[in-house]
Specification:
Elements lengths: L5 H24 L14 H14 L11 H10 L2 H14 L1
């Protein structure tokens, strides 16, 4: 693959599109969350459930989108079961 080739450009565009999609998804999912917040996971069952839900409804977490897993951990720490249920529905509609 040559530098500057159409194939290289397509790969770069796909990579940028993936990042933009992940940024938009998690911003819409939890707009008040600030990425500089520290999150200590308290409920690993919930955390794994939300990650699995995201990956089955949307796409597997990538090296880039994996940084947003803490958004899901924050939801597990702070949301009620009812709110988490709504979040799952929102995830499905955003994907």
């Amino acid at each position: 693959m040559a530098l500057g080739s159409a194939e290289t450009r397509e790969e770069l565009e796909a990579h940028i599109a993936h990042r933009a999609k992940a940024d938009a998804f998690f911003t819409n999912l939890m707009p008040s969350f600030k990425m500089d917040q520290e999150v200590v996971i308290q409920d690993y069952d919930c955390y794994r459930f939300l990650i699995n839900s995201y990956e089955s409804m949307c796409e597997p977490l990538s090296d880039y989108s994996g940084k947003y897993a803490k958004v899901l951990g924050h939801a597990c720490n702070t949301y009620s079961e009812f709110q988490l249920s709504g979040m799952i529905k929102q995830m499905d509609s955003l994907c």
